[in-house]
Specification:
Shape: globular
Largest sheet: 7 strands, mixed
Number of strands: 20
Strand content: 15-25%
Radius of gyration: 24 Å
CATH architecture of the largest domain: 3-Layer(bba) Sandwich
Helix content: 25-40%
CATH superfamily of the largest domain: FAD/NAD(P)-binding domain
Bound molecules: (2E)-2-methylbut-2-enedioic acid
CATH class of the largest domain: Alpha Beta
CATH topology of the largest domain: FAD/NAD(P)-binding domain
Length: about 550
């Protein structure tokens, strides 16, 4: 048996209550209850975890401390650096559209920019495809069935986002959705289908129709595989699309009119700085889960350090909704090795319920993610009815085995093969055993404020994907991220190509850094770590004095 003995009694209670629960779903919360639970238990409402921003376009707004720290930081580049290459800003490469980021939004933007006649360069700090897109599991939303419509999808997105979403962006999202599914299929994405060829769709939290399209439980990987293959095959045939890996952007370049003129990159192999001149830039750098807000573990990939927010902010672009983060309710809470990793919402979409230590349901399983997470936190922290593992990690049970009882034997193996494999590695059998879960940092709800074509207040600067803000308001629904990377990636790519067709190529400068330095001085900010972060720092900080024995072990190489 995979679970330790101290968890067995609770597991037995979940199993014992299953037959009674099979056809009794916990009632949904009322709007007042939802509001109450959010304000009391959601991490977005812990005021000490936030502080005011002291410089830049969002001066005076509040945001998570970890994010404010990197937004206010000095640049990586010191301007007094005696670097002839930089002072002349000689170009290492020239293109029409520079796409920063190698995930789904970046790939979509690059494909559409190239189709619209632009010469495109994608630069990415890790490998092409190392991105949150690759790690999205459960599905992508689109209202393309008879009982559904973009208007109903629109209402779900608005409600899920606390009615704070930008209506024009939501309209773009839901109207383009069916087109995006058809586009992805035409490129080769293999969505799950019924035997008659219709798309197999299920519910996600906060959806009023079954519109979640999936490729088993590795939908993001399937979409990323397809988009990357398409870029790679076009790149092999046309010089008009190129990919540079391991070359993060550390600063954007503006011309004398304040229009985008390119970017400064750092080659991670050689540490050499490189200048790319471009008439348009699409930021598609993804989220910031690796900042580990409030100490939460994250589902995010290694490069999710909020670089795009820093780059755009420093040239004067405004950020929207950056005071709200998404905590996915079902992060793994056991075993220790995978704490915080994603357990897809599709498990609940297929019918699995949530139980406390006594095997009782305490929340409707498909509340929106913010509410669902807050309910888990309340159950564990206030009511003390979670399960606590030997390492002190709290969690509640996700009763996955009931899926096969509801939908027929073999459903779990067919629909959730990646999940089954993930837990099998640790001796846990998802088909027969519930799994322990707790909220994990999953998504940056806000980002750089964009228009429906992905444009920003900086001429020539476009943003798409998780780095963009306004689409999801204060809470994103499942499956609308894989959708938005394609919708706004495509829109930003096309708009950037069109802008680059008529924009004058100005002289690139780093003059905005002088201004940034002055703003920082006026705000009395001291020098500290620079940003963008590029890679998270997991080195162990030794804050306690070492004992003599440990010091001598270090000297002899024992630690
Ligand atoms: O949209 C998401 O965040 C997603 C598909 C996650 C999941 O639970 O699978």
């Amino acid at each position: 048996m995979s679970y330790p003995t101290d968890m067995q009694a609770s597991l037995a209670k979940v199993e014992a209550s299953r037959q009674n629960r099979l056809h009794q779903t916990f009632p949904k919360l009322s709007p007042e209850e939802r509001d109450h639970i959010l304000h009391r238990y959601h991490p977005d409402y812990i005021s000490e975890a936030f502080r005011e921003i002291r410089v830049g376009p969002n001066k005076g707004d509040r945001a998570p401390v970890e994010l404010v720290n990197i937004l206010e930081s000095p640049p990586i580049l010191t301007l007094d650096e005696d670097n002839p290459h930089l002072s002349q800003l000689e170009a290492d490469s020239v293109c029409d559209v520079l796409v920063i980021g190698g995930g789904g939004a970046g790939a979509s933007a690059a494909l559409l920019a190239q189709e619209n006649g632009a010469d495109v360069l994608i630069c990415t700090k890790l490998r092409f495809g190392d991105a949150n897109t690759m790690m999205a599991q459960g599905g992508i939303q689109a209202a393309d069935k008879e009982n559904d419509s973009p208007a109903i999808h629109y209402l779900d997105v608005m409600g899920g986002g606390g009615f704070a979403c930008n209506p024009d962006l939501v309209e773009a999202l839901v109207m383009d959705a069916p087109k995006v599914i058809a586009w992805l299929e035409s490129l080769g994405v293999m969505f799950d289908k019924e035997s008659d060829g219709t798309m197999r769709t299920i519910h996600g939290g906060g959806t009023s129709r079954k519109r979640m399209h999936a490729a088993r439980d590795y939908t993001g990987a399937e979409i990323m595989r397809t988009l990357r293959d398409e870029v790679r095959s076009r790149a092999a045939e046309h010089p008009s699309i190129r990919v540079w890996e391991f070359r993060p952007v550390i600063e954007l370049l503006l011309d004398e009119q304040g229009h985008i003129a390119g970017a400064l990159l750092k080659d991670l192999d050689t540490s050499r700085l490189m200048v790319v001149r471009a008439r348009a830039v699409v930021i598609a750098t993804g989220g910031s889960g690796r900042l580990h807000y409030q100490g939460f573990p994250t589902t995010n990939h290694y490069g999710a350090t909020g670089d795009g927010l820093v780059l755009a902010y420093r040239v004067g672009a405004r950020l929207a909704f950056i005071d709200t983060m998404q905590y996915h309710p079902t992060g793994a809470a056991f075993p220790e090795q995978i704490v915080g990793q994603l357990v897809t919402e599709k498990v609940r979409g297929l019918g699995a319920q949530i139980c406390n230590v006594d095997g009782e349901q305490f929340v409707y399983p498909l509340e929106t993610r913010d509410v669902e997470s807050a309910a888990f936190i309340r159950e564990c922290v206030e009511r003390k009815r979670g399960v606590v593992t030997s390492t002190g990690q709290a969690g509640v049970w996700l009763d996955a085995p009931m899926i096969d009882q509801l939908k027929g034997p073999g459903t779990i193996a067919r629909e959730l093969p990646a999940m089954v494999r993930q837990f099998h590695r640790f001796g846990i059998d998802l088909v027969h055993e519930p799994i322990l879960v707790y909220p994990t940092l999953h998504y940056q709800n806000g980002g750089v404020a964009i228009k429906p074509d992905g444009g920003t207040s900086i001429p020539g600067l476009y943003v798409a994907g998780e780095a963009a803000g306004g689409i999801h308001g204060r809470n994103r629904l499942m499956g609308n991220s894989l959708l938005d990377i394609c919708v706004f990636g495509r829109r930003a790519g096309a708009a950037a190509a069109s802008w680059s067709g008529f924009a004058q190529a100005g002289i690139p400068t780093l003059a905005h850094l002088d201004e940034w330095k002055r703003f920082r001085q006026e705000a009395g900010l001291s020098d500290g770590s620079s940003s963008p972060v590029i890679l998270p720092d997991y080195t162990r900080k030794i804050s306690v004095p070492l004992h003599e024995e440990e010091l001598s072990m270090m000297e002899t190489g024992g630690i």
